[in-house]
Structures are given as structure tokens and as C-alpha cells.
């Protein structure tokens, strides 16, 4: 089927790297827009101010159904209206920490984690543990939908979390990456085992004038240190290299074994909002300058060096998020115009199409199996099913009262439907909550049938 040319997609003016509240600003401010030459804040500026200070509502009406006028589709597939699934009859029990909704075999909300301490900016899931980061500087750890443990950084709200074996890497507003490890004597105790860059490396680097680079007008800084907020973290396939993207327009490459900064890549002309390790030794970066760039990793003796390869996208609106699917065959890109572009590895990274399902900026992406999840400033999460190179929208998850800022996906080890695996999706929002969804990859008509059977007790 013929695809719409990428250049025909309507463009909007960039509003820069939209993300994170500034600690110096009023706590009622949801998002501090990093503006470029022009600004388009329409996606979030129209967000009702009354929702900013409201507590999480227990009203779960229309959690996973779009309005009749909302079409979710890929330009590579036939437009499809996602099914309506009403969960208002679900029993709900409340506690100070979490709310639980009855489990379903089909797509639906199964729980909500609420702790009034700040907006949720980052998530990471590992086994039965969920790590959440917020602007309170705390990293909370949840197990079985209950608070299990936690630890706190000295400064810098938590903007990114990535897990590598027994270590947890966290990226912060103050430009530092912190490394944590659980105590061998107590699973509830986590200790900080490092900060990137290390103090020793920073002092050593600062002694050499050649290690200073100009970061702003009349301001220099040593090249091994981010001088602005960290926006994204990604780990190489062999877990030996950590990549950190920053609003300072650079990507830094760290050796995970000794936390040494190996390289600083001047990647973009504006804030870097996302970096992700891809396939075939490629690294992808997305920026507020509207570009998606490809970097090639090469070994040079005992050293690793990165070289610019190509630009996949060059648009006026900001690139906000990137993700590579588990099969490493597709790259997805979310933008401030609400679109999700994708490229296909099998076709030498040719543009595959555009997924249109949101009314505002796409703030986060994740993938699992043949499903793609897009979270947006419109407070919704679109669930897309990939069939070949075509995508259909299975459902729209509704329940947040604020922009969906981050997601994490784990395989559900419960019952399968027709042999298809189900997934648990965690979504963090600027409404200060994390919601937990069970998502089925089965077609919408089958989910509707399961709903009917559940309501009438048929089999």
C-alpha cells in the first residue's frame, strides 16, 4: 500500500524541549518549555489549570475508549476507531498508597499508585519491581502495587531511570548521572555507589585548560560534565557503554565499569530530548531542533568512537521521544505535533509512515512484542498493533488527568488469550500518579467479545 510522503506531513512551530519543571519555578507549573527561536505551546498551554492542583480522581469513566470523533490510525493502514470499553462497574478499593481495580483478560486499568510528592518524570520496571522518579528528588520502589523501598538524591529532580543488572542509573536536572545498588544485606536499602562524572575525574580534567569547552557565551566548562539537565539515558547491547543525552545539546558516552567519560558528542543545535541505542552499531538521537540523527559506533583499537551517519527527520516541531522495537526492526519517533513517525531497518531506515492518534505532543514511547505505546500531553495513551509494516490503534487508555510523561512495559505472566502474551504497562503522569494497565494484543472485536462475556457471565 502506498505511503504518504513524509514531507507532506503538516509542520508546526517548535516549542523547544518541552519537559520538566524548573526547581526555581513555582511548584504549580507543570512544564517548563525550553523554547527555541519560536514557540508553540498550544499543546499544553490549553491544559486546564484547575487540574494542576487536583488530587487523583477515582472516576474511571471511559478509561480506554476514544470519543466517537477520534480516529487513531497509521498512514500505512485503514483508519480505525478504537473500541469503547466501560470500566465504571469495576470495584475500587482505596488506600493512601494505591488504588486497585479488578483484573481483566482484556485491556483495562488494574491499579493506580499515588503519592503526593511531585510530578512523575521517569519510570523503569525490572521483574516485580517498579522504580519511579519525580521532582521531589526521590526514587520510589514499588512491589505488588505497594511501596517497597526508596532512596533520595541530594539535588536534581529525577528525569531518567535505567536498570543494568544490579545497578540503577538515574539522570537528573542538575546534569549528573547517579548510580545506585541494593544493599546485599537488606533489599530495602539502596546505596549510591557513584556519580558521573566522578569527583576525581572532574578535578583531574579541570586542571588541564585544553579540557574546557565553551558551553554558553562567556562561560566554559570541562567537556566531561553536562552543564544542563539530563533528558534521557540508554545502555549499549553489551551493557558496557552508557549514553546520556542533555539539554546542553550533547550526548556523552560513559564506560559503565569505571564510570569514565569516553566521549562527548556535539549532537544537535538545540536540547537533546532522547537518545536510544539501536541496531547494527547505530545510536539514534532526537532534539528540540526538530531532527532525528543517526550515529555510527566504531572500534578504533581499544577505543570507541562515534561518527555522524545521517539525518532521518528534519522538521520544525520538536522531537520529544525515541524508541526501538524489541525485534530491532523499527525506530519510532514522537514529536510535539502529536505524530509518531517510524522507519524500517529492512528498508535501510527508509521512512515507513506516520501514526496519528493524539491531539497534543507525544511525550513518551515504548514497545513490547508487536505493540507500540504512545503517551501524550492530551493525557491519553494510544496502543498500536503492528501487522507487517501497517499499524492499527487497538485502544486508547484514558484515566490520567495530566500529561503522560513516561512509560514502562513488562510482560504479563498471567493467562494468555489465543496464545498471545499480555503486557503490563506503567504510565507516569504530571497528575502525580502512576497507573497500571493490562494490555491485550488481541484484535478489538475479540476484546469486545471478552467484555461481553465478562458482563453476562457467559463462556
From TrEMBL:
Q: Where is the composition biased (Polar residues)?
A: 1-22
What is the name of the protein in this document? Answer: F-box and wd40 domain protein
- Domain of life of the native organism: Eukaryota
What species is this protein from? Solanum tuberosum (Potato)
State the coiled-coil residue ranges: none
UniProt-listed Pfam families:
WD40 (PF00400)
Q: Which SUPFAM superfamilies match?
A: WD40 repeat-like
State if Repeat is listed as a keyword: yes
User: Where does the record place the region Disordered?
Assistant: 1-30
Q: Which residues form the signal peptide?
A: none
What ranges cover the WD repeats? 223-264, 265-295, 312-344, 355-384
Which PANTHER family does the UniProt entry name for this protein?
A: F-BOX AND WD40 DOMAIN PROTEIN, PROTEIN JINGUBANG-LIKE
- Annotated InterPro entries: JINGUBANG-like, WD40/YVTN_repeat-like_dom_sf, WD40_PAC1, WD40_repeat_dom_sf, WD40_rpt
What are the entry keywords?
Answer: Repeat, WD repeat
